[in-house]
Amino acid sequence: MNRNAKIICKYLGISLFITILLGGCTKYNEKQIEHNDYSQDESPISIKESKEETVKIGVLLPMSGAQSKAGQEVKAAMNMFVDIINESTDDIDIPLAQSQGLPNLGGRKIELVYGDLKSADTALSEAERLITSEGAVGICGLFSSANTKTAAVSTEKYGVPLMSEGTSPTLTQKGYEYFFRVFPDDTMYVEDSFLYLVELNETKQADIKTVALVSEDTEFGKNIANVEKECAEKYGFSIVENITYSSNATNLISESLKLKKADPDVVMMSSYISDVILYIKTFKQLNYSPKMIMGQRGGFMTSELFTALGSDAEGLCSTSAWSLDLQIPLVAKLGNLYKENYSDGVDMIADVLKCSTDLYVLCLAINQAGSTDADAIKEAMLNLIYPEDKLFIAGTGFNFNEVGQNVGTSALICQIKDGKYQTVYPDSIKAYDGLFPLPSWEEK
Amino acid sequence: MRKFININKYFIVKFLAGLLAAIVLPLFIKTPFPLHVMILICIWAIMGMGWNFIGGYAGQVSNGHALFYGIGAYTCGIGVKNFGASPWVTMWIGVMISMGIAFVLGAPLLRLKGHYFALATMAMAECGRIIFLNWSYVGGATGIDFFDRSKPSWYTMQFTSKYPYYYIFLFFVALILLLTKGLDKSKFGYYLRAIKANENSAQSVGIHTAKYKLLAFMLSAGIVSLAGSLYANYLQYIDPTVVMPLNISMMICLVAVMGGIGTVIGPLVGAIVLTIISEYTRATFSYINGFDLFVYGVLVIIIVLYMPNGLISLFNKKQKNKILTPLEMERK
């Protein structure tokens, strides 16, 4: 054999090894995708069909990094809903709990397949892997808006429903076909924040006139800051400071000093957990206490807030879509079930419930469709039938409009009291009158 | 021309065999995920080969190439979204802009030595990221989303299948590999190696070091920018946290260093190994919190410990007996 032939054989051998490595790590069968444009393409690529007994749902969660704790809690809550659906659970009176598995699919059970959500670009590759290699028929998880956009490239391409946790209003303006959002978008949350301030001025003569905006510098913070500016103008509040900072910051003293100097009545923050902790500790260090600190979920809706700040967290407000104190019997039951059997004694918080509700709603739609076909699920989602007396979220139910937004949802404002979130707005469902203004650091 | 490009016969045979294997390989893959991994390999290989000119051949370790990656991605995104231009055109505009910026920034920065250059380039990339985060014309923090499932075509370089992406990216990998090979044994390549070995000595024998370092920096920036354009078109959504984070700059270095710094196919080998390890550890261990990063880290440490000349030393027997530069001798 001459040298050239040896070289060719060597390279073909290496490529054969890589093929085995790449292909061997991925399970598949030969089912062609049938429910979207992809099938009409020239590509012979195929995805895995769920021939197994289970219906697989892809879950993308942050498994490492600053948000991994939140990811673990969401995973636990999702497992709770999977157990409720897969096993007959008489205590929890919600659809699918009394049967085993999905009755309209012959009792097929739900199986979750996980992907790690490290960044927006991994959202694309993990969503793709879950759909094509694991055979997921729907995707849900703890998404930011940026992650949702890249994951949607995969879900739209393969025609798989995506239950989004991204709250950016732009997501419903993109014409996604398989996109669904069960809970409110930023506009609704921010609007409620300002309505609460108006109510405080009217009922408690709070005399709130000025607001300072503090936002981390990626899409989450910046989008919310834009909506906050519009709402402040609409409701007659003046913005005395608008701070943008990097969420990787390890020192926020100069930002806090700016706030102290501007002395706003309310500080509105869009921050991740590590920043919230750092800000509050810096405020305490500087002995700065505004009348109100209002968070826009993110770091304010994590259980780590209580463990890290202890009594310093008392009185912090946050927008939310759910709270354990909602006057609905099912809420307490679900909360107790989670606390006793699925978490280490940690209360369920709103963002955890939201993600697991996304999964539950997807299961409802799959069952109502009686099929795992994406178009059938979409159709079922748009016409979802859910008894109002079995609701466990605020609002009127699960009524998705043509762009995939649930119009039956509503936002709440919660305040931390005795280490728990208590609903303070809207008036019709509030469980606590609210603390205003915030006490000084010595009094806390 | 003969002096400029010096490619021997056996390299051509190896190159064609490798290219043939890379062309044939996807035909045996039936699921999109491995093809996605191969696309990522192409992207990282282009970036690694680009960085190799300044970091590998010229020995000027840049930690700021995410800036050029981002510029390439944004030029493509803005061109497609705002002007309806074809990425086939905008990617070259991105290359021009990146080379222009590399020229402007490189002239003062390349006067710095060693760690100072590395730190300055890192600061340069971070400044770029912050500018893009706050620049409303380029979408600010919201970024640019140009996903449009209704318009797959060669003009928009948007496809529903992954095969066209793979073959397009492979074409650029092959092109840049040939360019690297051509420059490897050219005057330009030797000048850069001389600068890397000892800049003062190189200058004393008449090499215009400032000029050649700047040329290498510009070439490097242009190639990395090309990778940014291709990736943006593949991802169809970009924002500063996706295309300009600091860890992209670090990963570009890692790909080249792990594969074999200052070698022709080192960055390609580094891209293949690192991307496969990264993607498959994540896929395999995703249910255990953070374990994939642990496995990835351990594998990287093992490679660095046992193959300090990079993975290429596994294939290249001559590497063991090669004449070491003073810098390499000092390291040994």
TrEMBL record, chain A:
* Transmembrane annotation, as ranges: none
Q: Which UniProt keywords apply?
A: Signal
Q: Which SUPFAM superfamilies match?
A: Periplasmic binding protein-like I (SSF53822)
CDD domains listed in its UniProt record: PBP1_ABC_ligand_binding-like (cd06340)
Extract the Pfam families matched here: Peripla_BP_6 (PF13458)
Q: What PROSITE patterns is this protein classified in?
A: PROKAR_LIPOPROTEIN
Q: List each copy of the Leucine-binding protein domain by range.
A: 54-417
Q: Which family does it belong to?
A: Belongs to the leucine-binding protein family.
Query: What name does this protein carry?
Result: Amino acid/amide ABC transporter substrate-binding protein (HAAT family)
Taxonomic source organism: Lachnotalea glycerini
From TrEMBL, chain B:
Keyword Electron transport belongs to the record: no
Question: Pfam families of this UniProt entry?
Answer: BPD_transp_2 (PF02653)
Q: Where in or outside the cell? A: Cell membrane
Q: Provide the primary localization.
A: membrane
Keywords in alphabetical order = Cell membrane, Membrane, Transmembrane, Transmembrane helix
Question: What GO cellular component entries does it have?
Answer: plasma membrane
Q: Which InterPro entries match?
A: ABC_transp_permease, LivM-like
Q: How does it sit in the membrane?
A: Multi-pass membrane protein
Provide the transmembrane region boundaries. Answer: 12-29, 35-54, 66-83, 89-110, 165-183, 214-234, 246-274, 286-307
Q: In the record, what terms sit under GO molecular function? A: branched-chain amino acid transmembrane transporter activity
- Indicate yes or no for the key word Ion transport: no
What highest taxon heads this organism's lineage?
A: Bacteria
Under the heading CDD domains, the entry gives: TM_PBP1_LivM_like
The name this protein carries in UniProt is Amino acid/amide ABC transporter membrane protein 2 (HAAT family)
